[in-house]
Input
Amino acid sequence: MTGRLTSVNLAIVTTAPWAGDPSGRSGIDKRPNPGRILLRAGGVAGDFVGETAVHGGPDKAVYSYAREDAAWWSRELGREIPPGGFGENLSTEGIDLTGAVIGERWQVGTALLEVSQPRTPCRTFAGFWGVRDLIKRFTARATPGAYLRVLREGEVGAGDEVTVVHRPAHGVTIGETFRALNITPELLPRLLDVPELPEHIRERVIRRTAGAPR
Output
C-alpha cells in the first residue's frame, strides 16, 4: 500500500483560554512547512507540543491525519479545514489511517515510522475549532488519525511517498482500538493481543477488563 504526504505541518504557538497546558499555550494550530523536516524519536523538529503530560513522547512522536477524512469534516461543518487543521504533523492521502494496523511500519522519506495508537479528542481540540460538541461528534465519527513512533529518524517533506513495509498479523486497527477504548468496550480484550500497543493503554485495558472472560 502506498500513499503520499500532502504536507508536513508545524505549530504556530497559540495562547488561548481553551489551551490545556498550564502556560496557556497550545501547539494544535499547525501549518504546512515548505521544507524537509526531521522526525526524531522524541518528536518533530521545530514543532511545539503543549500539555506534555498527555501529548508527545515516543508513542506520540508524530500525528497523522488523512485529507480524505478532513474532507468529510469540511462537508459536515460547512467550512474549509486546511492541512494541519487537526493538529496533525503529517497530512496524508491514499492511506486508510482508520484501517491502519497497530504496529504497521511506514517508510516515509528517510524515516521509518510505526503506527502506535489513535488520537483521543480533548477540550483543547474543541476549543480550537470552536465547536462545543466536537468531542462527542469526533468520537461518533471514529476516524481519529494515527499517532506514530519514529523507529528510524529521518527527514520528510510534502510529496513523499508513504509505503507500508510491514503489517502485523494480529490485524487490530486504529479504528478498532479507538472504538474499543471509547465506544464498544466489548472489543477491549482484543487489544491485549497487540504487542505493539503502548504500555499505558495496555494497563488501562487490563484494569477495565479485570475478571472479564477472554
